[in-house]
Amino acid sequence: MRLDKFLKVSRLIKRRTLAKEVSDQGRITINGQQAKASSTVKVGDELAVRFGQKIVTVKIEKLQETSRKEEAADMYSLVKEEKVEEAVE
C-alpha cells in the first residue's frame, strides 16, 4: 500500500493530499529511510512522522483499503512520541 494512502486510511493524517505534502517535505521515515508519498509500506514497518514540535513513531499492524473510525487505530501501534527541541541561535 502507498504511504500516503496508509496515512489517510489509518487517520494519522486526515487528507491524502496533506499526507503527500508532509512526505514531500521529508518529514516521514520508514524504518529509518526517508520516504516519499509513493513509497510502499507493509506490515511490521516503523513510521516516524514529524508533526511540528513532536515526532510520532508507529508500527504498522495491518493494512486495509478502507476503515471505519473505530477500526483505524487498530492499523498501527504507537511505539513512542517524543518532543523535538528547536535549536535557538
Keywords:
89 residues; alpha+beta; Structural Genomics Hypothetical 15.5 Kd Protein In mrcA-pckA Intergenic Region, Chain A; globular; rRNA-binding
Short description, anyone?
This protein is 22% helix and 29% strand.
What does this structure look like?
- This protein is an alpha+beta fold.
- It has a single domain (3-83), classed as RNA-binding S4 domain (Structural Genomics Hypothetical 15.5 Kd Protein In mrcA-pckA Intergenic Region, Chain A, Roll), CATH 3.10.290.10.
- 22% of the residues lie in helices and 29% in strands.
- The protein contains three helices and five strands, in the order H-H-E-E-E-E-H-E.
- Strands 2-1-3-4-5 form a five-stranded antiparallel β-sheet, with no helix packed on it.
- Helix 1 crosses helix 2.
- The radius of gyration is 13 Å and the shape is globular.
- It starts with a helix and ends in a 6-residue tail after the last strand.
Topology:
Elements: H1 3-9, H2 16-24, E1 28-30, E2 33-34, E3 46-51, E4 54-60, H3 69-72, E5 76-83
Antiparallel strand pairs: 1-2, 1-3, 3-4, 4-5
Helix pairs in contact: 1-2
| Order of strands across the main sheet | 2-1-3-4-5
Largest sheet: 5 strands, antiparallel
**Domains counted in the coordinates: how many?**
1
Write the CATH homologous superfamily.
Answer: RNA-binding S4 domain
Please provide the count of β strands: 5
Q: Give the fraction of residues assigned to helices.
A: 10-25%
The name CATH uses for the topology is: Structural Genomics Hypothetical 15.5 Kd Protein In mrcA-pckA Intergenic Region, Chain A
Just name the CATH architecture.
Answer: Roll
Structural class: alpha+beta
Figure out the total of helices: 3
Q: What is the rounded distance between the termini? A: 41 Å
Query: Which CATH class applies here?
Result: Alpha Beta
Q: How are helices and strands ordered from N to C? A: HHEEEEHE
Strand content: 25-35%
Subunit structure: Associates with stalled 50S ribosomal subunits. Binds to RqcH, 23S rRNA and the P-site tRNA. Does not require RqcH for association with 50S subunits.
Organism: Robertmurraya beringensis
Pfam family, one: S4
Keywords: Protein biosynthesis, RNA-binding, rRNA-binding, tRNA-binding
